[in-house]
Write a structure and sequence with these properties.
2 copies of one chain form a homodimer. Chain A is an alpha/beta fold. In chain A, about 40% of the residues lie in helices and about 20% in strands. Chain A has 14 helices and 13 strands. An 8-stranded parallel β-sheet of chain A has the order 12-11-9-8-7-6-5-13, with helices on both faces. In chain A, strand 6, helix 6 and strand 7 form a beta-alpha-beta unit. The longest helix of chain A is centred in the middle third of the chain and has 19 residues. The mean pLDDT of chain A is about 95.
């Protein structure tokens, strides 16, 4: 219990040393150090390293006593960037945690190998899609889910915009979609899973996860930007041990969009979502509807699967406007341990099952299978 | 139930019209409109206005059918900026909701008048401070709280960095601090309130709010950036009807720091925190430890108290490095309906009670009292 939390920050602009020292205070004591000198050796964070990156930007390492986190993810986030998020020019770029804190928070319960095991898919890239749009009735969404499962999609998720609207109320939708995927599995012998979007109020969150499990959903989609990062962990703990937790980046873009501020996407999505329990982390891949770079996306995939706090690795799920044509490029970039997320493109031809089959064939072909 | 949600966005960069239309789709259907034409009149969002602001930046208004929100705050956030947060150059600057949706989510239970009533302070600016630093034992924090209450501070809150660390475990700290403030009130006849920071995991959130209430806390501090905006609403619903909900901006800076992206601070803090239930909204005032402008801060105060969705107004609480010398300037800027938040400056002279008395005197003097 005397471990150290290490975080790296880019400090853009002038006065890097002074601003880094102020940041260490802001993220721990939040009180001028001269007012609490006797606490500084036990509960104050300290700048322990300062260098420049290739672009001349100051990069500092701050160490926090592990005890500051109190063993809980929310307080860890307060340490890593709480008030510091309000400081211009401060960008969190990397985190290293003691295994003890990793174990306390827990990370993914399935990870890459676990998801492959439950899907009985040891080698090829995994396939995901979303049922949408909002406004479609539950029967229509379930029919889509059925076609996707018949076509061989592994993870069929609610679109993030599906909550509890009148057109497809949560309970009706989840029951019908889970049943539709189960019927398809009976026909195909496959193991497709329906993942229910849990986007609801804090007091209804647990009951909706439980409802989804009871209805036969194979996991859930959680939006940490909306529900808080700890909602991923909470969903994980409510799921059975073969339940998949998928993290969706909705409402997280505030952090990721400035090159000089916030949290680098690889640290946010590859480390923090994983720490919180995501087996699969969705993000917008380069060249889709969003403006992220290939390098940024590649790095998310690396952070999601590199050694980190003793946690299982997380599957990157690049999406946001991907098409079948891009499958070879994505597999080349990420390797086979990836969830390929293709949404609208599977609905484009009017035959979701055939499009899904083509998607599956493209994924097998991409690894020479 | 056929109301309209209206949101305004700045669209920075080129191709404003096309990007605005794409944004409306992204925030509702998230599917090319040609794939679901029959849904477009019931569940698709639409761009209804487009103009330029004084800086030549495109400003668009998007209308969403109220039914898309499903009556829940988390889904409303998905509509307002969910995936759109990942789009460069998109900045949410204003929101207008039907009163029906305002009523469903609820907003502050006390508001400005309610907080004044429970504090028995009808006219002068209200006074707040924080007990800190983390690392101080519960007895030390309680002793500070006692001095602040004796000196006449209205709202004595845990610092946001106080969670459940070994030096001052949550239950011990909350019991001792609430008791210390109660003892001071008995001596002074005052109505100072201790607000407990609820920074914990999703599964412990409710029990900690309830514990704080049972221990005699007069309200709670919640960080929507950490726990999700709906945690404010949840806390409100768990508190008795005289319990104060204070919103703290920790981990929200990703949204606010870019002038071309995210959510404008007045909309984020003045409208969304208020909608979620904040009676008091804390933010870093200009000229403190953070770089916000006076104009930005003034606008937060205006948004917090302007007519909005039939909700009660919220008290702005400018903080982040304020000092007693700045009290006149703050009251001049915000008027008397403000919570003046001075933290470390009250500990600087080594006599927290005397500093608090000086703070109270400065607040009275600022309104000529």
């Amino acid at each position: 219990m005397t471990g150290i939390i290490r975080a790296q920050y880019e400090i853009h602009g002038d006065d890097v040393d002074a601003r880094a020292r102020a940041l260490a205070v802001e993220l721990s004591h939040e009180l001028p150090t001269e007012l609490a000198p006797e606490r500084s050796h036990v509960s104050l964070a300290h700048v322990v390293d300062r260098r420049q990156n290739a672009n001349g930007v100051g990069v500092v390492t701050i160490e926090f006593p592990e005890l500051l986190a109190g063993g809980e993810l929310p307080q860890l986030l307060v340490l890593l960037l709480g008030n510091g998020s309000l400081n211009e020019g401060v960008r969190l770029i990397d985190v290293d945690l003691p295994d003890s804190l990793g174990a306390a928070i827990g990370g993914p319960q399935l990870g890459v190998a676990g998801v492959r095991r439950i899907l009985n898919t040891p080698e090829r890239p995994l396939l995901a899609t979303a049922i949408k749009p909002v406004g479609l009735e539950a029967d229509g969404l379930a029919a889509l889910a059925h076609e996707f499962a018949l076509g061989g999609i592994d993870l069929i998720k609610d679109d993030q915009g599906l909550a509890n609207q009148v057109w497809a109320p949560f309970e009706e939708r989840v029951e019908k979609c889970a049943a539709a995927v189960a019927r398809a599995n009976e026909l195909t012998g496959g193991r497709s899973r329906y993942l229910a979007a849990i986007n609801t109020t804090a007091d209804r969150f647990d009951e909706r996860v439980r409802f989804a499990v009871d209805a036969g959903a194979g996991g859930v989609l959680v939006m940490p930007g909306i529900s808080g990062f700890d909602a991923l962990r909470r969903a994980r703990d409510l799921l059975p041990d073969d339940g998949v937790v998928l993290s969706h980046p909705s409402f997280l873009g505030g952090f990721t969009s400035s090159p000089t501020h916030g949290i680098a996407p690889d640290a946010l999505l590859g480390l923090l979502s994983r720490l919180a329990g995501a087996d699969v982390v969705v993000y917008p891949h380069a060249g889709g509807r969003f403006g992220w770079s290939v390098e940024q996306c590649r790095s998310i995939g690396q952070f999601a699967r590199r050694p980190f706090a003793g946690l299982l690795p997380t599957l990157p799920a690049p999406g946001g406007g991907m098409t079948l044509e891009r499958v070879p490029e994505l597999v080349e970039l990420y390797g086979p341990d990836v969830v390929l997320l293709v949404g609208a493109d599977l609905q484009r031809g009017g035959d979701a099952r055939r499009a899904s089959e083509a998607f599956a064939a493209a994924a097998r072909a991409a690894i020479g299978g």
